[in-house]
Design goal:
CATH topology of chain A: Mth169, Chain: A
Structural class of chain A: alpha+beta
Number of helices of chain A: 2
Largest sheet of chain A: 3 strands, antiparallel
Strand content of chain A: 35-45%
CATH architecture of chain A: 2-Layer Sandwich
Oligomer: homodimer
Largest interface: A-B, 33 and 33 residues
Number of strands of chain A: 3
Chain lengths: ~80, ~80
């Protein structure tokens, strides 16, 4: 199954990269932007046909490698 | 409104970063992984209360700045 996960910075963590993108957008004429925050997206194809088990495996990967839980959150957004 | 977009490499474009993550996962004991592909995630808060208009604005941003349409696709996944 293909499991999609997004990893975002926690709410109170500064996102300088997002800030730069916001400034660039502003310079291009997109004036009405309150905030831009950037995150990571992973699409992981695991050899597991049970959606719940596949989700568990990817959550495990996020906990152990993909996300830095001190400053980041992860969310599984799709399993197919 | 907050619009969430993901940007992924097109299907036929190699993803060396995803490959490295897959190898690392393999080394950590996650043996049953067919493929890992990495992408970007953006959460953009625009001053626009109409969901359709907000989506249009962010699609415009993706076309002009956030995505490289030669090798990447973008998808709006959430508007709230």
């Amino acid at each position: 199954m293909k499991v999609s996960a997004i990893i975002t910075l926690k709410k109170d963590v500064l996102d300088p990269q997002g800030k730069v993108i916001q400034q660039t957008l502003d310079g291009m004429g997109f004036k009405d932007v309150n905030e831009v925050r950037q995150g990571k997206y992973f699409e992981i194809d695991v050899k597991e046909n049970d959606p719940k088990k596949a989700q568990k495996i990817v959550e495990d990967m996020c906990n152990k490698l993909l996300a830095n839980l001190v400053i980041e959150n992860y969310k599984i957004i799709e399993i197919q």
